[in-house]
Amino acid sequence: MAVLVVGGAGYIGSHTALALKRRGYEAIIYDNLGAGHAELAPGFELIVGDISDASKLAPVLRRVNAVMHFAAHAYVGESVVNPRKYFQNNVLGGISLLNAVLDSKVRKFIFSSSCAVYGTPAKVPMSEDLPRVPVNPYGVTKLIFEQALEAYGPAYGLGYINLRYFNAAGADESGTIGEMHSPETHLIPSAFEAIRGQRPALDIFGDKYPTPDGTCVRDYIHVSDLAEAHVLALEYLAGGTSQAVNLGTGRGYSVREILSAIKRVTGREVSSRMAPPRAGDPAELVADPTRAQELLNWKAKRSLDEIVATAWKWDERVRPTPK
Ligand code: UDP
Fold first, then answer.
1. pLDDT value at position 119?
2. Helices marked H in the chain — which ranges?
3. Does the Cβ of 216 fall within 6 Å of ligand 1?
4. For residue 64, is it within any domain?
5. CATH no. for residue 93?
6. Which residue has the higher pLDDT, 224 or 77?
7. Structural domain boundaries enclosing 61
8. Ligand 1 centroid to 56 CA: how many Å?
């Protein structure tokens, strides 16, 4: 079986392409390389194209049985200051991809959604039936695409799964692929930059949240665990019904706890300083991963220390400590 991994030269897409290959599937990567990197697609067929380019998509869609869609902008803060970019790509581009899929014979679609669709949750841990009330434009774009799938699914016989990720982190254990964002805004790689003096200090975005130590709590999930869930979702789609599934560990860590884990694992101190809260950041986001376990027989296997260790190994390779 062949799968088109759209956005497969990005962070989560590249790890999923590798997980598919390891399970014996053929993965073809389609990416416009706007934010992706050809180095993250080693040994894969890479087709360079945009999600809104239906004529480029049509021939490759004839060669696959399923599509996984990762090609989206994913910075909450940027979506607040530049929503146009997010609606253009994540909504208009995404729907154009979806229509290209409908115009082909492919009827299996897996979507990279996000816990951002829930906004500030009424309860934690968060199950899939919570109301979806996003609090930033990024989350709105993910919700609109979920709703398009919910309409297209029954109308056109399209099987889909909305995988709602919590905080993806870490890198493949092989050290060959990992996170490569520019600029880097995510917590763990940003802390590594502070360790190396590549930024003056790690800004802690707020310490007055209603959490045990006042800093935001997130559910950090190893990217290889996430990637493996996509393969299981694909297999579930062969017999199951369309669904939304949270992908997280069920355990939250505060920003300060992450900085302690980094010190423990790398032996290096992260210099940090207090900064104002970031727009659109809820206090606590932690998954209830029950449905993923029940439907997909999936559970996160890798620990926080493995997340930090694999991320550090990768980061030291691509942005080494100056000698
Ligand atoms: N964060 C922080 N300083 C940074 C980057 C992130 O304090 O330089 C916090 C952020 O407020 C959030 C958590 O770390 O609570 C994870 O943020 P990240 O950007 O990694 O992921 P997001 O939750 O936005 O998907």
1. 95
2. 11-22, 54-61, 76-81, 83-86, 94-102, 137-156, 187-195, 223-237, 255-266, 290-296, 304-318
3. yes
4. yes
5. 3.40.50.720
6. 224
7. 2-169+221-247
8. 36
